[in-house]
UniProtKB/TrEMBL annotation:
Residues 320-384 form the NADH-rubredoxin oxidoreductase C-terminal domain. It comes from Saccharothrix saharensis. Keywords: FAD, Flavoprotein, Heme, Iron, Iron-sulfur, Metal-binding, Oxidoreductase. Belongs to the nitrite and sulfite reductase 4Fe-4S domain family. Gene3D superfamilies: 3.30.390.30, BFD-like [2Fe-2S]-binding domain, FAD/NAD(P)-binding domain. This is Assimilatory nitrate reductase electron transfer subunit. GO terms for molecular function: iron-sulfur cluster binding; metal ion binding; oxidoreductase activity. InterPro entries: BFD-like_2Fe2S-bd_dom, BFD-like_2Fe2S-bd_dom_sf, FAD/NAD-bd_sf, FAD/NAD-binding_dom, FAD/NAD-linked_Rdtase_dimer_sf, NasD-like, Rubredoxin_C.
Length: 480
């Protein structure tokens, strides 16, 4: 039996253990040991903003219950971080204990990056009183404990996670100001026009912004000083200024590391007995911060480690970024940083800031290569399907941007959706898979999620999955 040790019990490590047991349910071929440094069972980090907002409880975002390990023949060890990897002897050290491995998988994730703002760290290198990172379930508990209505809060960072935290805190009645060093929000995923419309939309929800501003000092209980000479009062500062891949173990073990742990298409590091997946891994020059690539990597690696598909390879992931913030519908995909006068691309833009709408569509050879859609969920759904399936765009581009023209094969109802259409991007679940699971007896939303995992990622597909389940129940009733 092959002994697989997984370092990290976050979304990537937990998914890999699940995928291995799906292929080897009775542990006949592979033994699995999972080492997690947090005391919690695995949880969905993507949904932490909903915990901050109060719309989900910590228990609701758990990926595994307390009986999962025993029921799935997994040796799960919580609350003890790995301190060293001995590649010569093939053991990892957890305190005074040595854990042997045949194959080692690093799923160590990423850590919050703390900007070098004077006063933000105390003398021990920890965040000063009143400052909290936004990365873990424990961080959420600390934020919620301080987030009473009327509390002035500053959020450092206007990226995806920072804005989700800001929206959740504003929903709790906090007085939120986002401080962002770039001139527009979410600059990795949005162009300047979309960033401006998003800021206007969020301002209408009670969030203030200081854009193009750097925090030059922090005083606990008082707030932030900015480089323009202004002051942002804050009893709480939420740090969400980006993450860095957690590569220290790999680096100390002599593995090749750049911005992440370097892996090939087989997800092997420079030591073929050691693999890496998720936020800590760097594949083809890209360190991902989204769940979909991590879960696709877990499936590929499980195929290889169990011998189900020894030739399985990871070829990269096309991702769609969605802002999970109440009353804001935003999707961004592909290459959006293309000028309207590009010689190689067809670029269309539509702006309606007063109604919180912005759309940008980038086409090459009549196919979608990039898009930003804010405030137009119908257009976002149609464009995402075109992007996923490589279908040609309708000739009426403006109608598509406005959500009034659907692709020929798009969905007017669940019945019209092609079986191959991807419904849940995080888990790559198609309509056909949902129908198959329903016909096999998974006739409720929870059972469909358990069998296919649809809806267990970012939660953005929940309405679509519900619609398909309702359609199946109405059109194909189960016999008594």
């Amino acid at each position: 039996m092959r002994n697989v040790v997984i370092v990290g019990y976050g979304m990537a490590g937990a998914r890999l253990a699940d995928e291995i047991r799906r292929r080897d349910p009775k542990a006949e071929r592979v033994s699995v040991t999972v080492l997690g440094d947090e005391a919690h069972h695995a949880y969905n980090r993507v949904l932490l903003s909903s915990v901050v907002a109060g719309s989900l409880t910590p228990e609701a975002v758990r990926l595994h219950d307390t009986d999962w390990a025993a029921e799935h023949h997994v040796d799960l060890r919580l609350g003890g971080g790995v301190t060293k990897i001995d590649r010569t002897r093939r053991v990892v050290h957890v305190g005074d204990t040595e854990v042997p491995y045949d194959s080692l998988v690093l799923a160590t994730g990423a850590r919050s990056w703390v900007p070098p703002t004077p006063g933000l760290l105390d003398g021990n290198g920890e965040l000063a009183p009143g400052a909290v990172a936004f990365r873990s379930l424990d961080d959420c508990a600390r934020i919620v404990a301080k987030a009473s209505p009327g509390t002035p809060v500053a959020v450092l960072g206007g990226g995806l996670l920072g804005l989700e935290a800001a929206r959740g805190l504003a929903g709790r009645g906090c007085l939120v100001t986002v401080v962002h060093p770039v001139g527009h929000l979410m600059e990795r995923q949005l162009d300047a026009g979309a960033g401006r419309v998003l800021a206007t939309t969020l301002q209408g929800l009670g969030i203030e912004f200081r854009l193009g501003a750097l925090a030059t000092g922090y005083t606990p209980g008082e707030g932030l000083e900015l480089n323009d000479g202004t002051h942002v009062p804050a009893d709480l500062v939420v740090v969400s200024a980006g993450v860095r891949a957690e590569t220290s173990l790999a680096d100390e073990a002599g593995l090749d590391v750049d911005r992440g742990i370097l892996v090939d298409d087989a997800l092997r590091t420079s030591d073929p007995r050691v693999h890496a997946i998720g936020d800590c891994a760097q594949h083809v020059g890209t360190v991902s911060g989204l769940v979909q690539p991590a879960w696709e990597q877990a499936a590929v690696l499980a195929d290889r480690l169990t011998g189900v598909a020894p030739a399985a390879r990871y070829a990269g992931t096309t991702v769609v970024t969605r802002l999970k913030a109440r009353d804001v519908d935003l999707a961004a995909l592909g290459d959006v940083h293309v000028d309207v006068d590009s010689a190689d691309d067809e670029v269309l833009c539509f702006q309606d800031p007063a109604r919180g709408r912005y759309a940008k569509l980038v086409l090459r050879d009549d196919r979608v290569t990039g898009a930003i859609v804010l405030g137009a969920p119908d257009a976002a759904a149609a464009i995402t399907q075109l992007y996923d399936r490589g279908l040609p765009a309708p000739t009426d581009r403006l109608a598509l941007l406005l959500g009034r023209a659907l692709p020929a094969e798009n969905v007017a109802s669940p019945a019209d959706l092609p079986a191959a259409a991807v419904v849940c991007r995080c888990n790559t679940v198609s309509k056909g898979q949902l129908v198959g699971a329903w016909r096999a007896g998974a006739t409720t939303l929870s059972s469909i999620a358990e069998v296919t995992r649809a809806g267990t990622g970012c939660g953005g597909c929940k309405d679509a999955v519900c619609g398909i389940v309702d359609w199946l129940a109405a059109s194909q009733p189960q016999s008594a």
